[in-house]
Amino acid sequence: MRYAVLSDIHSNLEALEKAVSFAEAQKVDAWIVLGDTVGYGANPNECFEWATKTALVHVVGNHEKAVVDKELLEWFNDDPRKAIDWTAEVMKEELKTIVSTLPYVRVEKGFTCVHSSLDEPEKFHYLMNFHEAIHTFVKMENSICFIGHTHISSYFCAEDRTAKYLKSGVINLEEGKRYILNPGSVGQPRDRDTRLSFAIFDDDQRTFEIIRLAYDNKKAAEKIRSAGLPRYFADRLL
């Protein structure tokens, strides 16, 4: 099967629609959403509702979790907290109810999904280097784990003891090796490339392809400003 792997959509409807259009043209078989579908952007309902209706696998991220669990707000700086409070005000109650049902971790045949780390997934640790990834490798039940959270496409290989950022293109996943794979962020990339980022995983061919696409980021930024959200989240898209 071919899976579209999306993470950190962050209420950016323009980026999501562009990614979906491209992935559909590639005839993907299923969708994986790795959390943080809301936060920062101006369209939380549309983005979260799409994920709920479409994703075969959908795990919770810290931003949507904070919408329904106010204790998590203490972890956030002022501007992200303002975005979460705004999201909590405008998000449909039925969607908030769904947030509470989403798992931190999903183990499928051949791969595992989590927003941040398999080590204490409810604490949303960042995996930025190989040392930080070791605890997740220890807990993996299969050879591939998909993560998000950092907003930067990357991969870690246990057997090679390697970690590196990924540019657009295909990487081959060797049999007998374990990988942690991050598709980057659809709605808020943080690698100095304003293009959206997601991945297509082919479990038959054992490939993971990073896709980078330009989209109407100016429209997405203007919607953030018009909603009264912190301007920094708009400026970062540009």
Structural commentary:
- The protein is an alpha/beta fold and 238 residues long.
- It has one domain: Purple Acid Phosphatase, chain A, domain 2 (4-Layer Sandwich).
- It contains 8 helices and 12 strands.
- Helix 3 packs across helix 4 (78-90).
Number of strands: 12
- What is the rounded distance between the termini? 35 Å
By CATH, the superfamily comes out as: Metallo-dependent phosphatases
CATH names the topology as Purple Acid Phosphatase, chain A, domain 2
Q: What sort of overall outline do the alpha carbons produce when their principal axes are compared?
A: globular
What series of H and E elements makes up the topology?
Answer: EHEHEHHHEEHEEEEEEEHH
Strand content: 15-25%
**Secondary-structure arrangement, i.e. CATH architecture:** 4-Layer Sandwich
Question: How many domains?
Answer: 1
Helicity range of the residues? Answer: 25-40%
CATH class: Alpha Beta
Give the strand line-up of the largest sheet. Answer: 3-2-1-11-12-9
Instruction: Work out the helix count.
Output: 8
Uncertain ranges:
none
Main structural class: alpha/beta
Largest sheet: 6 strands, mixed
Q: What is the average per-residue confidence, as pLDDT, rounded to a whole number?
A: 97
Radius of gyration: 16 Å
